[in-house]
Amino acid sequence: MPWQSNGGGGDRGPWGQGPRRGGGGGQEPPNIEDLIRKGQDKFKNTFSGNVGGGKGFSLLLLLVIGGWLLTGFYRVNTNEAGVVLRFGEWTETTSPGLHYHLPAPIETVIKPKVTEINQIDIGFKGTGSVQGINYSVDLAKERQMLTGDENIVDVEFSVLWRISDAGKYLFKVDNPAQTIRTVAQSAVRDIIARTPIQQALTAGRGSIEREARENIQAILDEYESGVEVTQIKLTKVDPPAQVIEAFREVQRAEADREKTVNQAEAYKNDIVPRARGEAAKMMQEAEAYKAQVIAKAEGEASRFLAVYEEYKQAKDVTRKRMYLETMEQILANIDKVLIEKEGGVVPYLPLNELKKKQ
C-alpha cells in the first residue's frame, strides 16, 4: 500500500501515523480530530495551494454548473406525453423518447399518461376512481332521471375517456375529471328526457349510448379540454326500486295487451283477405251472369228480328212454320193418338215406346 512505504517507515496508516503499541501489543485507534484536520488541509491544498485559488473555485463552479445542466435530460415513456413548463407557462408537448429542457427552476416537465383509459362511474360506486372528483353526492338522486313520457328511471352509466392533448388537459380546464362528470350527467339527462321509458329500457339503449358520447365529446371539444371520450356504457336502466313491482305489473299488462292486439291483427289478416276473395268471386260471378243474360237477350232479340224480317216477306209461310215448330215442341213429349176425321182409330207405329225402352 502507498502509505506503508512513506518515509521508509514500517507499518503506517493513511494519514502518516504509525501504529502505537501498548503493553498489550494492540493497535490504538486514530485521533478523530487529527483525521478531520488533516482532511481539511488536503482539501484546501487541492483547490487553493496546489492549483491556485481562482482556478480551483472556477473548476468547482464548472462542476456544479455541469451537474445542474445534466439534470435537464428527461425521458418520456411510451404511454406518456411530456408537457414542458417554462416558469410555470406551458411551452411545448414532447413525444415519447429522450429529450432535454432547461434545468429547474427555469423549466420543468409534467408527464401525464395519455394512453391510459380512465373510467368515471355515475350513479353508483364502481371500479372507476379518478382524482379530483367529489364522490360525496347522493347517488340515489344522481341516478334518478325523468323520461320523455314523464316516468322516472334509475340510470347508472360509466364514461370511458383518455387524454388526447396533454397540454390542454392540464391547463385549459380546471379539474377536468369533475368537468367530464358534470358534462356527462347533463348530456345523458337531456337524452333520457327525450326518450320514452319503454325505449330506454329495451332497444333504445344503444342509440342513447352513441348519442351521449357524441354530445359529451362535442361539449368537451368546445371547452378545449384535451379529452377523448372512447365509450359510454349504460350499466343499468330500471324503474326506481320503490315502484319496480308496480311497474312490472304494468309491463305485464302491456304485454298482454300487445298479445291480444297481435292476435286480433292476425285474425283480421286471416279473415279480411278471405272475405275480400269471396266478394271478388261473387262480383266476378255476377259480372259473368250479367254478361250471359245480356248476350242471351241480345241473341233472342236478334233471332226475333231475323224471324220478323222473314215474316214480313212471307207472312203465311212464316206463320205456318212457327205453328208447326211450336206444336212440335208441345207434342214431342206426350202420348199421341191419331184419329181420322171420318172414322176410327188409325194404327200407328209406337216409336215413342221403342225410344223409352232404349
What does this structure look like?
By secondary structure, this protein is α+β, with helices and mostly antiparallel strands. Among the domains are: 30-70, no CATH class; 73-110, no CATH class; 118-239, Band 7 domain (Tetrahydropterin Synthase, Chain A). It is built from ten helices and nine strands. It has helices at residues 32-49, 53-70, 139-143, 166-171, 176-192, 197-201, 205-222, 244-313, 315-331, 351-357, and strands spanning 73-76, 82-86, 89-94, 97-100, 107-110, 118-122, 144-146, 152-163, 227-238. The strands form three sheets. Strands 6, 7, 8 and 9 form a four-stranded antiparallel sheet that branches. A three-stranded antiparallel sheet has the order 3-2-5. Helix 1 crosses helix 2 (53-70). The longest helix is centred in the C-terminal third of the chain and has 70 residues, at 244-313. The model is unreliable at 1-26 (pLDDT under 50).
List the helices and strands and how they pair.
Elements: H1 32-49, H2 53-70, E1 73-76, E2 82-86, E3 89-94, E4 97-100, E5 107-110, E6 118-122, H3 139-143, E7 144-146, E8 152-163, H4 166-171, H5 176-192, H6 197-201, H7 205-222, E9 227-238, H8 244-313, H9 315-331, H10 351-357
Antiparallel strand pairs: 1-4, 2-3, 2-5, 6-8, 7-8, 8-9
Helix pairs in contact: 1-2, 5-7, 8-9
Transmembrane segments: 57-76
Subunit structure: HflC and HflK may interact to form a multimeric complex.
Keywords: Hydrolase, Membrane, Protease, Transmembrane, Transmembrane helix
